[in-house]
Amino acid sequence: MSDADLDTQVAYWDAAAATKAFTHPVHLPWLDGVSRHAAVLDYGCGYGRTMAVLEQRGFDNLAGVDASSGMIARARDLHPAMRFDVLDAPPTLTVPDAGVDVTLLFAVLTCVPGDDAQRALVGELARVLKPGGLLYVSDLLLQDDGRNRDRYEQFAERYGTYGVFETGDGAVCRHHSSEWFSSLLAGFEPIDTRRITVATMNGHESAGIQILVRKPASPHRASAG
């Protein structure tokens, strides 16, 4: 598997699209100050679960993108009135610079094992965000149980990063240290962080983290960070 294939895993997600369930919660108080007409982009939207939560809360300018055509097909079946598109060359978006008010990145980084690929993805989201726009990340932390520690050790040499592992059904996933998230999001202004407990797509209760950051309002502030 090439590095590009590893960091998208389209074949896996197309095959899994009909059966996987995602559970990361949306902490709605973080979005209380956002206009219900704000442009919201859900990157790695899967079958549209998170977008449906926001639509129920009155958000009316939602768009979802995913590299998996299978996931997008399921999303369109479940939510025919919403906008969903397949990413042709992830992480590249067809959105213009500074065209989005809020970007969501829910349980996506765990599916992108490589450091460089994660940096490229976050950089692309920064490009499309308006100055002062929000990035809301929800993902998984390194776990401290024996099952996870064993597989981190098993696959660390193969993938070059502690926390990357293969699942029994063929995915390559990554759990992260909190320090990595701080480094990855260093170009943004931190707003809030919360720890969560969430079921993974394969049903294992796991420690997660949610992070809300803001794109700096000026290039000077961004470079200073």
TrEMBL record:
One family name in Pfam for this protein: Methyltransf_11
GO biological process: antibiotic biosynthetic process; methylation
Domain Methyltransferase type positions: 41-137
UniProt keyword Chloroplast present: no
Molecular functions (GO terms): S-adenosylmethionine-dependent methyltransferase activity
Transmembrane helix found in the keyword field: no
Keywords assigned: Methyltransferase, Transferase
Recorded superkingdom: Bacteria
Entry protein name: Class I SAM-dependent methyltransferase
